[in-house]
Amino acid sequence: MIAEHVAFGIIAAVMVASALRVVTTRDIVHAALYLVIVLAGVAALFLLVGAEFTGITQVLIYIGAVIVLFLFGIMLTRSDFDQDEEADHRHKLPAVLTALLLLAVMIGALVDRFADVKLDANLPGGRAPQTTAQVSDELFSQYIVPFEAVSVLLLAALIGAIVIARREEGG
Amino acid sequence: MSPAAVVSGLLAVEVPYWASSTIKLGVVALIVPTAALVLGYVFLLKMMSFMQSRLGPMEAGPYGTLQLLADGLKFIQKEDIFPEKADRTVFALAPLVVLISTFLIYVVIPTGPDAVVAQLDVGIFYALAVSSLSVVGILMAGWASANKYALMGGLRAAGQLIAYELPLVLAVMGVVIQAGTLDLQKIVTAQATGEIFGWGGIGNPFILTQFAGFFIFLVAVQAELTQPPFDMPVAESEIVGGYQVEYTGFRFLFFFMGEFGTAFAFAALAVVLFLGGWALPWGDIEHWAFNIVGPVIMLVKVLAVAALIFWFRFTYPRLREDQLQRLAWKVLIPLSLANIVVTGIFKVVL
Fold it and tell me: Is A23 helix (H, G, I), strand (E, B) or coil?
């Protein structure tokens, strides 16, 4: 357990430091790259608690696709390394307030749900490694309704994105 | 002592965790440059030369075998040059990100019943996920070079790699459905112990049933490696090398090793998924001897698949950007989805 606590401490420290750099750096490409470190840290934390499938999905989706799209968009629309002064200051106060509110909500939800939960210390590393088969079994039986709802939501977002892009094309 | 006793004696030695981890790391660290050397020499230098009726390098070592080693030494001696306006940190890190992505793929490729660095429950999924990390490195290189050709190359690469990652993953799905597991080791076992309508003479290599998947996988791999005919991101005649244009010395060497190391890794994945991996369908595949014979069998198969990949590379002319995107979105992705549906139906019916 000690080794895992140390690992958690290191990963968490790196994540917090990088997350701060995401919002303090003035170079938007650097911000995206710091975000890569934060998301890799999240994946590492998932692996640390034995959620292999979730951790690797995190890498594939967030680093392999979302960040790449971020970088792609930034590089298509901007042409030099100029430090963007406008990226700062303007909406600082509302942004800080929103972030604090979100933090409060998440802490509240997590404490409310998990404050009394104890991990089973008899299993190796204090928990059972979660296999892909278990994840899919639960996803397609117990959580089938939320799963389908999310699918429909994603489809709606996808169609919405295409409609907006088409309209801007003037077609 | 009989050889069996020696090996089982060796296997019985308890190696501490840190020692076995260090050994495994060392093996992976050695395999990537070796794989790049082998593929570079056999195919890039020799096979291409013979196809073009010339000899290729002949001076360094017998038949020019040491040519790439000499090239590597030359690269290491070169000055480490940064473009004046480059974003130095990002520029320096980009080739490392690409190379690390290559290293990480090797971790899960099995070469024998025990000869694997880490046997993961989600093996193939992990391999595809870490291989997608190289895009970040390529975009970093394209951006940080402060060069318009590099930026264009980076953008072309990102667009291409995203488009072809989908058919790559979807082509693998057919195999996963048939084997019923994501674990690469179990996929090998499923093929070695499988039967074709009750006949187990050659096991059941998935290329027989997943031939469409194999074809899509190879085409997508070709695009993921940004090799001709999918070399728009590095097209020398248009953008003088794309995201690599500002790189020299050992950083360029990293890109080179990344490209050929990844070619080898993808060939190895194709072998594991479609051609039965390290196993032979005869005899007991749990036998200790497979830990020694397995890597050899694997190497032969990998070189065969790599020959196919590089044969495409030297044969076809470059696709235009719109043709390239159309091929991915309108041909390969629908084809692989149809393959998944058909495989799913057969899995349920049979």
Answer: helix
The token duo for B254 is 């990293």
Which of the four pLDDT bands, split at 50, 70 and 90, describes residue A102?
A: very high
Q: Is there a contact between B98 and B138 (Cβ–Cβ < 8 Å)? A: yes
Asked if the structure places residue B309 within a domain, the reply is: yes
Distance (Å, rounded) from C-alpha B299 to C-alpha B301? 5
Residue labelled with tokens 């090998």: B188
Domain topology for A1-80? Four Helix Bundle (Hemerythrin (Met), subunit A) (1.20.120)
Helical residues (DSSP H) of chain B, grouped into ranges: 3-12, 17-39, 48-51, 67-77, 88-106, 123-131, 134-144, 148-179, 184-193, 211-224, 236-239, 249-274, 290-315, 321-326, 333-349
Tokens standing for residue A107: 């802490």
**Which pLDDT value is given to residue A49?**
76
Q: Which of B132, B136, B146 sits opposite A60 (nearest CB)?
A: B132
How many beta carbons lie within 10 A of that of residue A92, not counting itself?
10
Does ipTM top 0.90? no
Q: What domain count does chain B have?
A: 1
CB contact A3 to B (< 8 Å):
no
Does the beta carbon of A33 lie under 8 angstroms from any beta carbon of chain B? Answer: yes
* Distance separating alpha carbons of residues A25 and B87, to the nearest angstrom: 14
Q: To the nearest whole angstrom, how far is the Cα of A168 from the nearest Cα of chain B? A: 21
